[in-house]
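2024-03-11 09:14:02 INFO worker-7 job=invfold-0412 stage=load source=structure_tokens
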């Protein structure tokens, strides 16, 4: 029996939440911008990007990723709204509660999107479409906002169905209809195929999913390696990835930050590295992980991205060990320009055995970190922080699309 998968995709999520909680915005063209950028809205915020636009704004051509000047150019009456990450995170967690009333198999894929496997439970409610309509009604009744639901035999096709039917729609692509649905679909419209791969396939004369499905696997393997197997399956509308909750184990814990301005000064860079290291270390400690590989990511103003890593002798989740390792990496690099984005991650993870250290200094250090974590858990991130972190603004900006309501991707948004 074919599996039945739902993709629940919230419509203009951030903007819809703002319009519902602030009725004076209802029916107006609004754009949600990063929560840390309010002090820049009326200044030189050339890099302040629009994270979500209401459908009223989209009608004028306002798109996600535009900066506020581009948005205002196409829609002079555009209303800028400061994002409220805590409100969006709360809504996402409450939405998950709704989904769990229909099936235990729920994967919160991002802050505004989730996959549900209803193969074993849809008959309790009627048909798959009945489940989809019931979820839409529950979301509308609870929050006054809309979502689009796609139904398919796998996540790939369910996602496609939701994309086709937005906004406020419901579409079921049955197994027997998959081939006809994707035959002439441009490959760039298929979830998981980015611009680079799409461009390469284009040079091979492959423009549609039908063409991708018909090309010999050997050709794709020769060009893309093992990824070619996945591409061939996608061209046929196949996807065997299961709907899974946030796994208990993780491959890495990381955090990146697009900075309010391009920076060159080492004191500023070091301060941000310490903040990022603390965010990574704290999440590792909270979830019981230690890691051995520290990675640093740098993005320049022209969007060229550079990464380098360092392997430690011992496993750690200590903020300062992570920070000093990130410092060692950046000290080994000759920066060619100012920095637009910084990222720090901890990988090669294993579970922390929580063994009591034999050394007094190590025990004191661990106790200090645990005390800081408890205070910040209770009163909010960076209520208690390191003295060397002197940058006062909250530059967390936009909530990451990778955010999850639980597990290592759950970042405190207070």
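2024-03-11 09:14:09 INFO worker-7 stage=emit residues=414
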């Amino acid at each position: 029996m074919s599996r039945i998968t739902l993709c629940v995709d919230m419509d203009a999520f951030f903007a819809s939440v703002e319009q519902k909680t602030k009725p004076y915005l209802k029916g107006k063209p609004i754009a949600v911008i990063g929560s840390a950028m309010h002090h820049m809205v009326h200044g030189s915020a050339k890099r302040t990007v629009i994270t979500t636009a209401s459908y009223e704004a989209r009608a004028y051509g306002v798109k996600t990723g535009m900066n506020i000047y581009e948005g205002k150019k196409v829609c002079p009456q555009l209303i800028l709204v400061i994002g409220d990450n805590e409100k969006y995170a709360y809504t996402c967690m409450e939405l998950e509660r709704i989904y769990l009333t229909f099936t235990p198999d729920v994967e919160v894929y991002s802050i505004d999107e989730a996959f549900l496997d209803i193969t074993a439970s849809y008959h309790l409610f009627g048909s798959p479409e009945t489940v989809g309509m019931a979820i839409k009604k529950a979301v509308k009744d609870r929050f006054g906002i809309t979502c689009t639901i796609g139904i398919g035999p796998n996540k790939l096709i369910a996602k496609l169905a939701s994309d086709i039917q937005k906004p406020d729609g419901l579409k079921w692509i049955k197994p027997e209809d998959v081939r006809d649905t994707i035959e002439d679909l441009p490959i760039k419209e298929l979830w998981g195929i980015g611009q680079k791969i799409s461009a390469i396939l284009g040079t091979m004369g492959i423009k549609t999913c039908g063409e991708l499905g018909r090309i010999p696997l050997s050709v794709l393997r020769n060009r893309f390696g093992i990824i070619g197997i996945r591409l061939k399956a996608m061209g046929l509308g196949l996807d065997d990835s299961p709907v899974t909750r946030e796994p208990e184990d993780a491959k890495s814990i990381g955090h990146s930050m697009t900075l309010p301005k391009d920076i060159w000064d080492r004191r500023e860079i070091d301060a941000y590295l310490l903040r990022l290291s603390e965010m990574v270390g704290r999440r590792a400690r909270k979830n019981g992980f230690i890691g051995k590989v520290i990675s640093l990511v740098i993005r320049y103003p022209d969007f060229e991205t550079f990464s380098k890593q360092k392997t430690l002798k011992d496993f750690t989740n200590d903020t300062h060990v992570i920070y000093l390792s990130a410092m060692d990496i950046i000290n080994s690099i000759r920066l060619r320009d100012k920095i637009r984005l910084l990222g720090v991650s901890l990988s090669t993870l294993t579970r922390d055995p929580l063994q009591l250290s034999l050394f007094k200094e190590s025990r004191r250090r661990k106790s200090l970190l645990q005390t800081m974590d408890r205070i910040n858990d209770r009163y909010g991130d960076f209520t208690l922080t390191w003295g060397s972190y002197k940058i006062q603004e909250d530059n967390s900006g936009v909530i990451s699309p990778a955010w999850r309501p639980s597990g290592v991707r759950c970042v405190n948004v207070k």
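2024-03-11 09:14:09 INFO worker-7 stage=report msg="The chain is about 35% helix and 20% strand."
2024-03-11 09:14:10 INFO worker-7 job finished
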